[in-house]
Amino acid sequence: MARKYTRRIDPTAPGSSHTVSGSSGATTGAPGGAQMGRISAENPFYALHPVSPGRLALYFDQFSQMLHAGVTMHEALSHLGSRGIDGRLRRATEQMVEPIAQGAPLSEQMARFPELFPPHVRGLMRAGEASGRLDTITAEIAEEYRGQQRRAWVIILTKLWFALPLLLIPFIIPLPKILEFNPDLQAGLDWYFGFLLRVSLPLVAGVIMLYLLLKVVINLRAVRGVRDRLAYATPVAGMLVRQAAMERYLIALEALIGAGVQIQEAMSIAAEAGGNTEVERQMAEIARKVRNGMPVGAALAKARVIPTDVKQSLETAERAGSYDRTLDTLRQWTREKRSMATKIAGIGGYTLLLLISSAIVGIAVGYGYKLYIESMIKGTEKWLE
Fold first, then answer.
1. Residue 36 and residue 14: Cα distance in Å, rounded?
2. Domain map (residue ranges) of the chain
3. Alpha carbon distance 119, 112 (integer Å)
4. I need a labelling partner for 325 at 20 to 30 A (CA). Which of 9, 171, 310, 315 fits?
5. Cα–Cα distance between 156 and 152 in angstroms, integer?
6. pLDDT per residue over 171-221, tens digit each?
């Protein structure tokens, strides 16, 4: 028997919750559910040291294995809360155990910890609750985090490669000034080290602080909408954002349709798994049109976020009544397309960063040693005379 499931479009957006049909492991009418489901204040400094994708992958992978083996959600969370995968994950899980035992939805409890469980994770978990396929959904979340972990070291090394020359410039540029104090080398060195203390080191420290502050600001809940719209509108980044959102959308939609949830409600819930506020807005608008009686094909016609191939396939599936087969094929196709696009974008992006950073290093070093080379040439000419 399907239970009532409370869904929130976005914990940051105004509006009241509404109820949809679906199979869930809990009811929101449980004692203390409203109080314990309250969203916590977000720690803005979490962005400086987030939980690694590898640990999150392990967390959701273990969760999926236990659910697949028939362990109840409460028992699985109790087990995860007693293990030391990560201190923050362990503490958050411990705080979710009691409300879950009282019947609160897991996705609502995860909303209390937005730094650990971003919107797309909570959206997928809602789809898992509504479809009764949490084991499958958590396995998909674990797989996505594994992919992020595989790319994490490459991203870190790229940042270091690009940041190192920028940080070295304030130390290289003033070096030629030492020659102006010739033959008093000591005076030149004194001036150089004084310049480092007065200008170079404060400049480097300021750049680092500005970078850290920017990381905090762009991850604030209040700024998320602007950040997501900019990411959506950026040519290459926007393509990757849309492909990732589409894969999650199809994962959620496949689970919901397979569990017998009506298409209009399935599309409403799946819209929350996009992971980008602009994508979620467009998908929610599509779901609203379908809920108001518009055919799926017509609702998708003007949706920019949905690729043409997906639109045509879903329209065909609506007419043929074969959503299960179509969604499985589309999910596999979208995953392969996203993987290929990520590789191509990564290679192109890393190549561009390599060229830019190499050019910066070349200019800085060339300028810094220009006077030294000229001095050597003049010294050689004088010696030959």
1. 19
2. 152-223+352-384
3. 11
4. 9
5. 6
6. 777 777 776 666 677 787 888 888 888 888 888 888 889 988 888 888 887
